[in-house]
Specification:
By secondary structure, the chain is of the alpha+beta class. It is 21% helix and 40% strand. It starts with a helix and ends with a strand.
């Protein structure tokens, strides 16, 4: 019985929850929009912060245009956000629900722009440590919502609380047409991010790889590679019922190692749980946090 259970686990697809998928589609849409317009973007960057619950701060996108840097938080939700004397209220519609606004499904929420401003201040400090020239670089926080949300009560193009389709005009209005200096791009490229696990449905799961070493059992030997030396791992399933997965490992020195691995697992801290995945259930691992 255990043998059958283990066999089925190897072929089970790992799928994030509906809320995660719903939000990720919004992030992917905005990323695609920015890439299409040839902006320099850095996704899911993180900063150390001992005051944070998890010891770090994170934002969805950092964008550089000319000598201006934008810190962008992406919000995809269904419902309405409005102001009260007690702060902001979100009147929610669950992801995938056809129901209209439900006045009984409400919650208070933190001001999303203030959260981005907090990250922006921390980012400026971190960048100045890397290069004093960042003292003279403008950093602008912005929160973008999908049109599925009604933000009429808090919308402000001037302050940077806008819809997805306002983002390009916002960037163009608040930045110069100058080419971004290479030193800015080089320093932004040094910022760390979440590790990204991609399942067979191309859904992304973010977190931190717990393992310090990637261990692969081949037919001939045991191979160990420090995750700190790995840029990404791509996986192709072997023939049906095969114990071996075809693995292509791109190292940070740009060399590639191709292996056939058996029963390889990795463990990821998704910030809510520790999850262990068989490589056979994945298509790619992007190592961003090392």
């Amino acid at each position: 019985m255990n043998t059958i259970k283990n066999f089925l686990t190897r072929f089970k697809n790992i799928t994030p929850d509906d809320k995660h998928i719903f939000g990720r589609k919004g992030e992917n849409y905005v990323r695609g929009l920015l890439i299409k317009n040839n902006y320099h973007i850095y996704c899911n960057r993180i900063l150390k912060n001992q005051k944070s619950r998890f010891g770090f701060l994170e934002t969805d996108i950092i964008l550089s245009k000319g000598t201006t840097i934008f810190v962008i938080e992406i919000k995809r939700m269904k419902g309405r956000i409005f102001k009260t004397d007690k702060g902001l209220i979100q009147e929610k519609i669950p992801a995938g629900s056809p129901l209209k606004f439900n006045p009984y499904n409400v919650r208070t929420m933190k001001d999303p722009l203030n959260q981005v401003k907090y990250f922006t201040v921390a980012l400026r400090k971190e960048l100045i440590k890397k290069d004093k020239r960042f003292y003279n670089i403008k950093l602008i926080p912005v929160v973008v919502f999908s049109r599925e949300a009604d933000i009429t009560d808090i919308y402000s193009f001037e302050k940077g609380i806008i819809y997805f389709d306002n983002l390009i005009p916002f960037i163009e209005e608040h930045s110069s047409n100058k080419t971004t200096p290479s030193w800015i791009l080089n320093k932004l490229n040094l910022l760390k991010g979440f590790d990204i696990i991609v399942n067979r449905n191309r859904n992304e799961i973010t977190g931190f790889i717990v393992d310090s070493v990637f261990i692969c059992i081949t037919k001939q030997k045991k191979v160990e590679i420090d995750f700190a030396d790995i840029e990404n791992i791509k996986v192709k399933r072997g023939i049906f019922l095969s114990l071996y997965d075809n693995v292509s490992i791109l190292l940070k020195n740009k060399k590639t190692i191709n292996l056939k691995c058996k029963n390889t697992k990795i463990t990821v801290n998704t910030l809510s749980t520790l999850q262990t995945y068989f490589l056979k259930n994945l298509t790619e691992i992007k190592v961003e946090s090392r």
